[in-house]
Every structure is written in C-alpha cells, then in structure tokens.
Amino acid sequence: MQKHLNLFLIGEINVFISIVLNTLGVMVMLMENCQTDCSKYGHMELKNINKDIVSWLEGVIEENNSRIERKEWKSKYNSYVVYDYEPFCADGFEINLLVSSYDYSYLNFIKYLYDEKINTIEYLNNCISV
Predict the structure, then answer these.
(1) How many Cβ atoms are within 10 Å of 114's Cβ, its own excluded?
(2) What is the pTM of this model?
(3) Cα→Cα distances 83→66, 87, 90, Å
(4) Minimal CA–CA distance to 113: which of 50, 52, 64?
(5) 100: left (phi over 0), alpha (psi -120 to 50) or beta
(6) DSSP-assigned beta bridge partners for residue 83
C-alpha cells in the first residue's frame, strides 16, 4: 500500500511538474512570438474625425481585426492641449485615432470605408443644399 501511495504521489508530482513546464513553455513561446511579431504591426493615424462618426469608426476598426492604440482630443486653438479622454466641452477639439493591425490590408480597408463614409456624407449634404 505504501509503495502504491508513494508511486501515486510521485506520479501526481510528475504530472503537476509536467503541466507547469508545458504551461510555462507555452507562455514563453507566446511571449517570444509577441516579441518577434509585434514589430510587424502596421499603424495608421486618422486625424480630425467628426465626432458623429467616431462610434461607427470604432466599430469598423474592431470588426476588421484592428485596435485603437491611441485616442486623443487635440485642441484646435492650442497645439499643446491634448487629452486622452473626452473633455467636458469637446467643441473646440479634433479627435485623432492611432489604429494598428497585423495586416496592412485591414488598415487600407478601414481607410477606404472611412473615406467612402466621408464622401457619402458630403454628397448628401450637397444634395440637401441644392
């Protein structure tokens, strides 16, 4: 009985050590992959975004395997005033986004959708004014 108990405990310890080593190996492998692959990320900055379409643009960015690295409100009157949160009165600020993605085609597609949205809004505004 004692031999079986010792072997069982040793077996559990070996399984536990094996699980810990495998988990650490996977974590190290993921960390190494991130360290080598993170430099391949592409970045794109979108400046002076209309505050009415910011939520739409954030949804498009999320849907296209991209993420917002930085979102800032920059004063139109003083270039030194930059907030990383929405100010109480956001009328005199422009919204800038820094978007990153692993694949540049996602960034190009986001830029295309954004440009098409702006062109459509301008076209509809021109139709209203005529």
Answers:
(1) 20
(2) 0.65
(3) 22, 7, 10
(4) 64
(5) beta
(6) 73
Task: Decide: 117 and 59 in contact? Cβ < 8 Å.
Answer: no
Residue 7's identity, in one-letter code, is L
For residue 9 the two structure tokens come to 């405990």
Handedness of CA 35, 36, 39, 42 (dihedral sign): negative
Closest by CA to 44, choosing from 109, 118, 119, 93, is 109
d(CA 65, CA 24): 27
Q: Kindly report, residue by residue over 80-111, the tens digit of the pLDDT.
A: 889 888 888 878 899 999 999 998 999 999 99
Token code pair at residue 66: 């991209």
Residue 110, phi-psi category: left (phi > 0), alpha (psi -120 to 50), beta (remainder): alpha
Half-sphere exposure for 119 (CA within 13 Å, toward CB): 6
Length of the chain, in residues: 130
96 forms bridges with which residues in the sheet?
A: 72
Provide the pLDDT for residue 79. Answer: 82
